[in-house]
Specification:
The protein is of the alpha+beta class. It folds into three domains: 1-229, Beta-Lactamase (2-Layer Sandwich), CATH 3.30.450; 281-327; 337-483, Heat Shock Protein 90. The protein is 55% helix and 16% strand. The chain is built from 13 helices and twelve strands. A hairpin with a 6-residue loop joins strand 4 (150-158) and strand 5. Helix 2 runs antiparallel to helix 7 (176-226), helix 8 (242-290) runs antiparallel to helix 9 and helix 9 packs parallel to helix 13 (452-462).
């Protein structure tokens, strides 16, 4: 169960889903962190500048107060209600608490009611920074004076006439506004992130499912193919993308495999039939001679039949081996040229006896000048021989055979024609199948094995060419072409 669960979540669907969700989450996190850092720093800088400005205004207002404080005690300064009211009003308007200090950092007056009556001294480093640099801005709790860190800005109070530093003004602002902004931003970010993740999950889920569903169907289809079932076809769902092309390729592969399987079964059935006939004849007549069923005076006759059937069986096996060898050859690899006219003449001369035995005339239309074509000379010679032998075998006695070579654009066409029985139109595509014979009775042609025209088609396919056949009114024509370059 655990392995099945792990296997399920290791699938392409979940991988793409997690990758998409992780990418979106990482992007949102980086954008959120960057935006928060920029916005927080901007707000802090803006707030700091604002507090510094207000502290400088208060420092100008407190110069006289600090000048007077040189000659009064702290208790007397704190009893100065007029300036204290002014400072409290300024603090209420600006939402900033002020502390008026002397040059040593002792707090003389504070607008924060929580600090009323307390004796306070600012941190020494802050006082030193104010005196040296003319300004100090930091986040601090002022040595535990406040519960949490606040914006603290200090500026010197300078007498405009003498340019003498008479004290310092500390402005303190809470972080409440920035905290509110941070909480609002975090809430908005998480809400936006959740919505974005949900949209990403939904979009990724739909996209991944559209991609994974055809793949799962292909996996099931390949398993069916492995079991020998080639009837299943893929659904392309009307898609024109790579998945649609892959589904179409799978269907084409299934068609090819189905056709190959059908041809394999037909081949096995045909070869079983073809081999069974001579082997049955050989075995029957041999047993008849051995058990005395056949009279001694007839033994020679039946031994001749056994010899003929043995030779026919040998030819059949040799032809099948030739087909296997032809299918593994590439005659165009070397790009050799030869004279097709000379090849046709040699075949015609070799067929002279068979043609004369059938009392046939020959109309040879072969040019005198050489016509060079691209291909294998021996293989094309075999094609011409098989076609001429087939035409001679099925030509009506006393008729004329036609053998012609004619140029056709950048190719050369070879034509073989005879006059005999008309081949039915539905049988024409079957002529080039293995072990097919045009005779209705497969025993009439004892010399043939039904591979001659199949060899012709195989050789021409190796040359990237096709064989054409027509049969009308007793005239049957075979023709093929070869490239000259």
């Amino acid at each position: 169960m655990k392995e099945q669960f792990q296997k399920q979540f290791q699938g392409l669907y979940w991988r793409q889903l997690f990758v998409t969700a992780g990418t979106v989450l990482l992007t949102l996190s980086l954008l959120g962190a960057s935006f928060f850092a920029l916005s927080f720093n901007y707000a802090r800088s803006h707030r700091s500048d604002e507090i510094v400005g207000r502290a400088r205004v208060m420092s100008q207002l407190s110069v006289n107060y600090l000048e007077t404080g040189r000659y009064l005690s702290i208790e007397e300064l704190r009893s100065d209600q007029s300036f204290q009211q002014l400072a409290t009003f300024a603090a209420a308007v600006s939402d900033v608490h002020f502390m008026i200090c002397d040059t040593e950092g002792h707090v003389l007056l504070s607008t924060d009611p929580d600090l009323e009556g307390m004796v306070l001294t600012m941190p020494e480093d802050m006082t030193a920074e104010i005196m040296e640099r003319g300004e100090s801005a930091r986040r601090s709790d002022l040595n535990g004076l406040y519960d949490g860190k606040r914006f603290v800005v200090g500026v010197p109070a300078v007498n405009p006439d003498s340019q003498e530093v008479v004290g310092e003004v500390i402005a303190v602002s809470s972080m409440a506004s920035l905290d509110t902004m941070w909480r609002g931003f975090v809430g908005l970010f998480f809400m936006t992130a959740m919505v974005s993740l949900m949209i990403a999950f939904m979009a990724s889920s739909v996209t991944a499912m559209r991609q994974v569903k055809p793949i799962r169907e292909m996996v099931q289809a390949t398993r069916r193919y492995a079991e020998g079932d080639f009837d299943i076809r893929m659904n392309d769902y009307g898609r024109n993308d790579e998945m649609g092309e892959l589904a179409a390729s799978f269907n084409n592969m299934a068609e090819t495999l189905q056709q190959t399987e059908r041809q394999r079964r037909e081949f096995i059935a045909n070869i079983s039939h073809e081999l069974k006939t001579p082997m049955t004849t050989i075995a029957g007549y041999t047993d008849g001679i051995l058990d005395g069923t056949i009279p001694p005076e007839n033994e020679r006759q039946y031994l001749q039949i056994i010899s003929n059937e043995s030779r026919r069986l040998s030819r059949m096996v040799r032809r099948m081996l030739d087909v296997s060898q032809l299918q593994a050859m590439d005659p165009l690899r070397n790009g050799s040229h030869f004279d097709i006219c000379e090849s046709v003449r040699r075949v015609l001369i070799s067929m002279e006896k068979k043609i004369n035995d059938r009392s046939l005339d020959v109309d040879a239309d072969i040019p005198e000048e050489p016509m060079l074509v691209l291909g294998d000379n021996d293989m094309i010679t075999q094609v011409i021989y098989n076609l001429l032998e087939n035409a001679t075998k099925f030509a009506r006695t006393g008729t004329t055979l036609y053998l012609g070579v004619t140029p056709l654009d950048s190719k050369v066409r070879v034509t073989v024609r005879n006059l005999g029985d008309t081949i039915p139109a539905e049988e024409l595509p079957l002529l080039f199948e293995r072990f097919h014979k045009s005779d209705k009775s497969r025993s009439e042609d004892k010399d043939g094995v039904g591979l001659g025209l199949y060899i012709v088609k195989t050789i021409l396919e190796q040359h990237k060419e096709k064989i054409c056949v027509t049969s009308e009114d007793g005239v049957t024509t075979f023709s093929f072409s070869l490239a000259m370059e």
